[in-house]
Structures are given as C-alpha cells and as structure tokens.
Amino acid sequence: MTRTGFALALMTCAVLGGAACGCQSSIPRDALALSPQSVERRVLQTRSYDTTDEATILQASAGLLQDVGFTIEATRSSLGLLTGSKDRDATDGGQVVRAILIAALLRVSTPIDAIQKIRISIVTHPEASRMAVRVTFQRVVWNNHGQISNLEFLDDPKMYQDFFDKLSKAVFLEANKI
Amino acid sequence: MTRQFLIGAVFVSTFFGGCGSSQKQVLLADESAVKLRSIQSRVFDTTDKTKMLRTTMATLQDLGFVVDSADDSIGTVSATKLDRYALRMTVTVRPRNERQLLVRASAQYNLRAVESPEPYQNFFAALEKAIFLTAHMEEDRSPASGSSTGTPSSQGSTATVPAKGSPLTGSRGTQK
After folding, report:
1. ipTM rounded to 2 decimals
2. Radius of gyration (C-alpha) of chain B in whole angstroms
3. What class is the B30-140 domain?
4. pLDDT by residue (tens digit) across B115-127?
5. In chain B, positions 10-69, which contact chain A (CB-CB < 8 Å)?
6. Which residue of A15, A32, A86, A138 to mutate against B (max B Cβ within 10 Å)?
7. Which CATH homologous superfamily contains domain A42-175?
8. In this structure, are residues A86 and A117 in contact, taking their beta carbons and an 8 Å threshold?
9. d(C-alpha A34, C-alpha B115), whole Å
10. Chain A contact set for B129 (CB, 8 A)
11. How many CB pairs under 8 A join A and B?
C-alpha cells in the first residue's frame, strides 16, 4: 500500500512538476493565436469611461495601483500604458495541510507555494468620446525550495470586477480632484 | 586519495566547462539572420506608428500577454505571457519608407528563441484583425468589444519580405 502510494505520489509530482515548470521544449501551436476565449476575456478585462482625458485615467490608475500595494514599474502616457507588480506571500492553507499529511503518511517532503509576484498592465485606448481601459493580471509562484511552481494568467471575473469598481471610484475622485 | 581525485575532477571540469561555453549563447542564433528577419517581419501600408504600437499592445493583451514596457519614440513594445510557460515577446515598429511601416516581432519561449514561422503567422494574423477592429471602431464610433470576426483590413499588408536594402549588420566601429 505504502509503495503503491509512494509511486503514485512520485508520478503525480512528475506530471505536476512537468506541467508547472513548462518543460515542453517547443512553443504550443496556439500560444500566439486568437482563441474563442479572446473576445470573452477582452470584455471581462475592459471598461469604458465617459471621458476623453487619458491622463486623468492613467493618474487614477496609478493611484489605484498604489492603493492596492503595487509598485509601478513602467509608464508611457503617450501610449496609455502603466505596468506594476507586487511580491506577496503565496502560502495556501490547504496545500500546507496536504504537505503535512503526505509527509506523515509517505515520509516524503513535498514543496509548498511560498512567494508570488503578481504583475499587472493597464492600457488605455481612446474611443470616440470615451476612454477604454483594459487590465491584465498574471503571476509567478515560487515554492519553499525556491523553484517556480506556477506561471499563470489570472482570469477570475470577480478580480476584474473589483478592480474596475475601485477604478471607477478613483476616476471619479481624480476627475473631481477630491 | 578519492578526495584528491574528486578535487582534481572538479578542477578539470571547471577548466573545460567554465570557459564561457554558455556565454556563447549571447550572440547565438539558430537561424540565419535573413531568414529570421523574413519570418518575424511584416510590412503594413500605414505610417501611423503610434496607432500601430497601440494596436500591437491591444493584440498582445488579446493573446493573454501582460505588457511590460513600450516606447513610442523608438517604437518598441515588450510583453510576457504566463500560462504554465513563459513566453516573452518584443515587437518593434519602424518606418520602412514614406508610406509603410515595418513591424518585427521576436519571441522567446521558456529558454529558447522562437524561430519557426507558424507562431509569427498567428501573431500577425491577430494583429491584422486588431487593426481592422480599430479602424472599424473609429469609423463607427463603437466600443472595442465588438465582433471578433471579420476580414483583415486593407491597411494590413501581408507581405513577408523584409525591407530591401536595409543593412543586416550595424556599421563596425574603428578597431582599437
């Protein structure tokens, strides 16, 4: 039983490890192709504001990034670009419990997520009498062995909804100089 | 004795392996410069560099990238896509002549340069479509979240030949 469990654990680690560190040697065929989800994601990630003042939107966005703890890394107002990142703890309670159970049952030490870098880019796009704002998030996660355990695009709709709710307030405050 | 042998082995391996063999990667390319340039470049019949850069950023976001940096005076956009792999991309936009822009994209997938044509064909197909959407948006004054279908814009030429006569190498400085 123990040997079977151990073999299973090893196989799982190999599969997960291979997937997580992107050990595939050549680029996936669809990595640079538009997918059916592209439009869906665009809608999720875009919000339009009733202003043509791009600078105000970018200033409000910069303020919001600071509010939620991001460090601004690059800005290019002439292209409507703002990028930022933040490093945070990535410990997951469930994962820690699993690691403890595996260690107790199989006497195998499994790495657990420790640190994450969350990256964001905000791009403004002038429309006729409005300003479209598109935001994209992604993150890199390192485990407690210092290895990258996850590279992912963040597409939780609630995250984007919350971001734009906050941005709406920030744009209002910025526009009214409050 | 064994310890001495091991120390010796480490020393020898350092001598052979540490002479910068991995440093050769700095200027190493698998494909010829001309072929690579042809794979990675497209010509567009427009002179609006800023619009092309903005459209490039929008396209990269459509493809799941987070934009890292952009510069409209030099004409560059860099972005990263993380999806269980790391795909980094730089797109440069520069005037080809009085009525055309040359757009060149170069990508790195994990630890390798992307030198096969297909990913670039996909990228430029998406860029053409985005130019169509952008033009469509400005004419119709409608938001960006419109249809994803449509034929590529007449603005987007599909020529794959790089600019003729453009030098492949920089001028070499005087040797000291």
Report:
1. 0.80
2. 22
3. alpha beta
4. 999 999 999 999 9
5. 50, 53-54, 57-58, 61-69
6. A32
7. Kinase associated domain 1, KA1 (3.30.310.80)
8. yes
9. 19
10. 34
11. 148
